[in-house]
Known about the structure:
- The chain is of the alpha+beta class and about 425 residues long.
- It contains 13 helices and 5 strands.
- The chain folds into 2 domains: about 1-200, no CATH class; about 210-420, Histidine kinase-like ATPase, C-terminal domain (Heat Shock Protein 90).
- It has helices spanning about 1-15, 15-45, 55-75, 80-90, 105-145, 150, 155-160, 165-200, 205-250, 260-290, 305-310, 330-350, 385-395; strands spanning about 315-320, 355-360, 365-370, 400-405, 410-420.
- Helix 2 (about 15-45) packs across helix 3 and helix 2 crosses helix 5 (about 105-145).
- The radius of gyration is 39 Å and the shape is elongated.
- The two termini are about 65 Å apart.
- Its EC number is 2.7.13.3.
Amino acid sequence: MRGNTGRAVAGRLFGRRARLRWVHLILGGALLMPYWLLGTVVAGPLLGGQAMFASSPAVQFTAYAIALPLAAVTALFPLTRPMSVAAARSLCGVAEGRFAEGPADSRDARLRTAGWYTLHVGLGGLVSGATLALPPFAVTTMLLPFSPGLRASAVAHFWSLDQEWLVYGGVPAGLLMLLALVAAAACAGSFMARQAPRLLGPTPADRLAAAERRAAELAVRNRLARELHDSVGHALSAVTLQAGAARRVLDSDAAADVAFVREALAAIEETTRRTVGELDAVLGLLRQGEDDGELPGPGLEALDGLLAGAAAAKVGLRIGEGLDRVPAAVSREAYRIVQEGLTNAVRHAGGQPVTGWIGVDGEELEIVMENPLPAGGPVVRPGGGRGLRGLEERARLLGGTAASGPVGEVWRLATRLPVGGGR
Length: 423
């Protein structure tokens, strides 16, 4: 038990973490130097015109007292926090997640950073001064019993080391001084590490900003997921339907309808080519890791190509007037809504015809799609899908409405979007 305790104490005093914290304190002492030099300029006249670099303790500590408020003022700049965080994260042994990120933008964050910086340079100046002065003094004290000439020297007299008792107690006294320095540095480093999360950690404003950033990132990811789902899901459903129809035609008769098969293959080619382009655009955003607010993709101007690619689904969708004045954002979402409606009809309705219309009604874009409910029940994928939920989210984000479900003997999708633009 005693051995374990001794090793634990030695680790706290001489371990790697203690050494790094000591380096952090010495860095604080180095940062204090410009403020301390400026303080000595002021301290000399205040203390009766003493020299700027006088060795008087009064001048030294007066300059130290003047330096600390100067350091606090300069630490109010926002960029002080990321620099302080970088040093504390590397040297203080504090978990990375407990620090705030970015400049100190709020008043509370700037005041906390100023407090940390003042504490860093203040304690660092004291520890650095002791680190420079105490080891030579302690070594000299330990050498006194072995050097009569040293005991009679001016250095020993200046430091009051010509006392008789030091002839016998110089070595223990010197070792105790060094141990006291190590213990003081370890305690100061531990104190700084405890204060780091409190003074350099996120403020309530930082946590709110981080939560908003995470929400924005999740929103972008959801938008990209909807784009991928709608684009790829529709393409696969259309290609599956076209390929299945072509296969059935080829299997039904040796004299197959070559024109129909050629048309199905052309539709497959066009659908896959269009989808690859859309997929490249969305994956490009994922590679960039950011979103410019406007996802790329086709709009209502590409509706004819979409309906042509779904020819085997027997689509009879009437297109009204006024689509040219639909805003670009609404146009893209409307295209995806029509695409998802066709995908659901192909996937779940067993090849039933799809009818409806799309057009501007007053200040709203109206999309209505219907298909008869299949007699044998819809074809449902294992595990279900998220297409209709994503469709409702698209409409809601634009300030519109979307509803889908059975009405009598048909399945109806009805969507209304404001043409004045999305929120």
